[in-house]
Amino acid sequence: MNRPSERIYDEFLVAAAVTGDRRARSRLVARWQPRLHRHAWRLLGDADRARDMVQEAWLEILRGLSRLDDVAAFPAWAYRIATRRCQRECRRSDRSPLVAEESAAEVDSPAPESVGGEFKTELAIVIDAIDALPGPQRAALALFYIDQLSVAEIAIATDVPPGTVKTRLMHARRKVHALLEGEHR
Fold this sequence. Notes:
Belongs to the sigma-70 factor family. ECF subfamily. The protein is mainly α. It contains 8 helices and 2 strands.
């Protein structure tokens, strides 16, 4: 099994943090804080609410770290805790950006915008297309392609069955493709 060195380092930090190593805990938080914040932001669509939910998630993560049986499971486990915090926040505030994307309306492709007389760069167009996705699709896409989690890990992280993850990825890919096709016509 070929595992990236980043994953191995995270596993080392988790194992060291479990033994009480404060520096390892600090490094673990420093490495994972931005990832968990981006994930919460993708789900909630609000940076301040995301920051608050991740703060609460860290309390739960650090308290439960000693009960984590497999240090390799840390990414999916930590994302799941953050996901559940975001879900609770949505229920508490009567907002629901975590709606199932299967029932969400199709996103119309935006017209290219002019920036300083030039069209957006291709990267900006792709980012805009991803930003137009519903939160669950955006999160699944990012966890798969950016954080390189497997479908099984994403299922754990987002607390949904693997089939739902595959469906979200399929719909997200189709919508991004459709949006990008609309940009290049």
